[in-house]
Design brief:
Helices cover 33% and strands 19% of the residues. The protein has helices at residues 13-22, 58-68, 75-95, 127-140, 206-214, 243-247, 273-287, 301-307, 309-317, 374-389, 422-432, 439-455, 462-483, and strands at 2-9, 28-32, 48-49, 101-102, 105-106, 108-109, 119-120, 145-148, 150-158, 161-169, 175-185, 218-219, 224-231, 251-253, 292-295, 327-336, 339-341, 353-355, 360-361, 404-406, 507-509. Helix 1 links the parallel strand 1 (2-9) and strand 2.
Length: 512
C-alpha cells in the first residue's frame, strides 16, 4: 500500500492550492474523479474578494461578511478571513495568476452587498479559469502525484484516526488503497442535486457523503445559495450570468420590460443573492414567465465586451448580442454554504481528516455567502491547514449546547414511491427543497429520499457512486431544512417566513 504524507481529494482551487502548499512539507497525492481541470473553479466568473483597496479595510470586509451571513457567521473565522486575505492574494500573484490591472495596480470592482469595490478578477469574467489553469500547470510541473479518474469511495480509519483512503479506478473499476498522515477533502459542493444549477458535472456532494459515512460532523446543510441570474434560453446549456454584471449596472426587468427590484428592496439589483433570487421567482410567478431579463444595453458596448468577454461571447455564439438585447435569466442552484464542519484550522472531528473549499463548513458564510468570498476562503483556510499539520497541535470541534445535533435515521420498510434516477432526484430537490420551502414539501422529499437510501443498491461505477452520495447529501440538506423552522439567509420557509432569535444556532449531523 503506497504512503503519502498528504492526500488531497479534489482538483479545484482548494485541492491544487493546498497541494502546492503541502509539497513543501512532504509527499503529496491528488485524487480526482475526473480530469484535473474538471471543477467548479473553472466556471467561477465573479472573482475573489479581498480588502486591498485604498478605501477598504479588513474591518469593513468583516462587517459586510457578517451582515450577509444573517447572524450565523463564526466571527473568529471571518476575522481570520479578512485579516489574512491580502497575503493569500499575494500567493496567487506569486504563482502567476494574471489579475487584471490598470496603470500597474490590480483593478477592483463591486458586487452585491459589498460596500466598496474589492473584487479582483482575471480576464474580465474568466477569473476561475485563469486560477485553475495557473495552479494546475504549477502542479503538473512538480513532483505531486495526480490520479485522474479515480473516485474516493471510503475513508480508512484505525481506532477512530484517519489512516488513508480507498479509491476506485473509474475506467477499470478496480479498487486501491493509499495510506497517509493527513487526508484533506477538497471535493467541492453539490449543485448537481438540483434540476437547474450553475455547477460542473463533478458537483455531486461526494465529499459530504464520504465524510458523513466515516463519522465526520456535517453542519449548516440547509443553507444552499441559489444564484439569481442563470442564462435561460431554449436549447442552450445553463450558463452563469455573473453577479458582477449587476455590480456594473445591469438592470433586472420582468417579461413586460418593467424594472422590478426596487419594488422588493431598497438595495434593488445590489441586494444579497437570496433576496434577488426570491424576488425574481416571485416576479416570474406574477407574470407567468419562466424567466426575467437582465439589461446591460444602456452600458457602453466597450465596457460590456471587455469586462465580460466570456459572457458576451457565449451569448453571441448562441444568437444573443447582450450589448443590444436583454438577457433572459432565471435563478439556479449555485453554492453550498454548509458542509464538513471544521474549526479555524480546517480540522474535522476525526483526527487526521481536514476539509477545505466548498466541501467544508468553516463558519465564514453563515446563512448566506457574501459574493466572491468563496475562493478567498479556500486560500486562507487551506494555508491554515498546512500550518496546523506542521505544528504538531490539534484542537477538537467545540460542542455548543444551544445547537442541534442529529443523525440520519432510516425510515421503516416502506416501498419507494418513485424510481431512483438522477433526473428524479434533481427534480425532487428543485421542487421540494429549492428556493422556497415548506413543511409539507420537505417531509415529502424526506420520505422519498429515505426510501431510496433504504433500498439503494451497492455502487459499482462512478455514476452509481455519485448517485449514492447525492441521496445521502440530499437527505442531510432536506432534514436540516425541515428542522429549521424559520427563514434566515438562503433558507426560506413560506410557513415560517420570519427570522427567529431562538434559531440563532446551527444544525449538525453525525452518523452514530
Amino acid at each position: 500500500m503506497a504512503y503519502f504524507d498528504y492526500i488531497l481529494i479534489g482538483s479545484g482551487i482548494a485541492g491544487l492550492y493546498t497541494a502546492l502548499q503541502a509539497r513543501r512539507h512532504g509527499t503529496v497525492l491528488i485524487v480526482t474523479k475526473g480530469l484535473i481541470q474538471d471543477c467548479n473553479t473553472r466556471h467561477a466568473q465573479g472573482g475573489i474578494a479581498a480588502p486591498i483597496g485604498a478605501n477598504d479595510s479588513p474591518e469593513l470586509h468583516f462587517r459586510d461578511t457578517i451582515e450577509a451571513g444573517a447572524g450565523l457567521c463564526d466571527e473568529e473565522a471571518v476575522r481570520i478571513l479578512t485579516r489574512e486575505a491580502p497575503d493569500r492574494i499575494a500567493d496567487l500573484v506569486d504563482y502567476g495568476v494574471p489579475f487584471d490591472t490598470l496603470d500597474g495596480k490590480i483593478t477592483l470592482t463591486t458586487e452585491a452587498a459589498h460596500s466598496v469595490p474589492r473584487i479582483l478578477h482575471a480576464g474580465g469574467d474568466a477569473t476561475g479559469e485563469h486560477i485553475e489553469v495557473t495552479l494546475s500547470n504549477r502542479v503538473r510541473a512538480t513532483d505531486i502525484k495526480v490520479l485522474e479518474q479515480y473516485f474516493a469511495t471510503d475513508i480508512l480509519l484505525e481506532k477512530g484516526v484517519v489512516k488513508g483512503v480507498r479509491v476506485m479506478d473509474c475506467v477499470s473499476g478496480f479498487a486501491e488503497e493509499f495510506e497517509c498522515k493527513w487526508l484533506i477533502l477538497a471535493t467541492g459542493g453539490g449543485g448537481k442535486l438540483f434540476k437547474f444549477n450553475t455547477n460542473s458535472e463533478i458537483a455531486t456532494g461526494d465529499g459530504i457523503a464520504l465524510a458523513y459515512n466515516a463519522g465526520a460532523q456535517i453542519s449548516d446543510m440547509e443553507f444552499f445559495q441559489f444564484h439569481p441570474t442563470c442564462l435561460n434560453m431554449p436549447g442552450v446549456e445553463p450558463f452563469l450570468i455573473s453577479e458582477a454584471v449587476r455590480g456594473e449596472g445591469g438592470i433586472l426587468r420582468n417579461a413586460a420590460g418593467k424594472r422590478f427590484m426596487p419594488d422588493y428592496t431598497p438595495d434593488a439589483e445590489l441586494a444579497p443573492r437570496d433576496v434577488v433570487a426570491r424576488s425574481i421567482l416571485y416576479e416570474m410567478q406574477k407574470t407567468g414567465a419562466d424567466h426575467v431579463y437582465i439589461d446591460v444595453t444602456h452600458l457602453p458596448r466597450s465596457l460590456t465586451t471587455t469586462r465580460f468577454p466570456h459572457i458576451y461571447r457565449y451569448c453571441l455564439d448562441n444568437g444573443l448580442d447582450i450589448t443590444r438585447q436583454q438577457v433572459p435569466v432565471a435563478p439556479a442552484a449555485h453554492y453550498m454554504m454548509g458542509g464538513v464542519k471544521v474549526n479555524s484550522w480546517g480540522e474535522t472531528n476525526l483526527p487526521g481528516l481536514f476539509a477545505t473549499g466548498e466541501a467544508a463548513c468553516t463558519g465564514v458564510h453563515g446563512a448566506n455567502r457574501l459574493a466572491s468570498n468563496s475562493m478567498l476562503e479556500v486560500l486562507v483556510f487551506s494555508k491554515r491547514i498546512l500550518e496546523r499539520t506542521t505544528s504538531g497541535k490539534a484542537e477538537k470541534l467545540p460542542v455548543k449546547p444551544e445547537d442541534i445535533y442529529r443523525s440520519l435515521e432510516l425510515p421503516g420498510e416502506t416501498p419507494a414511491t418513485l424510481p431512483l434516477t438522477l433526473a428524479n432526484l434533481q427534480t425532487l430537490m428543485w421542487d421540494k427543497v429549492g428556493i422556497i420551502r415548506d413543511k409539507e414539501g420537505l417531509k415529502a422529499a424526506g420520505r422519498i429520499l429515505g426510501g431510496w437510501q433504504r433500498h439503494i443498491t451497492a455502487p459499482v461505477d462512478r455514476a452509481t457512486h455519485e448517485l449514492n452520495a447525492m441521496v445521502t447529501t440530499a437527505r442531510l440538506m432536506t432534514e436540516a431544512a425541515l428542522l429549521r423552522e424559520e427563514s434566515r439567509g438562503a433558507h426560506f420557509r413560506s410557513d415560517f417566513p420570519g427570522t427567529a432569535e431562538a434559531w440563532r444556532r446551527h444544525v449538525h449531523f453525525r452518523r452514530q
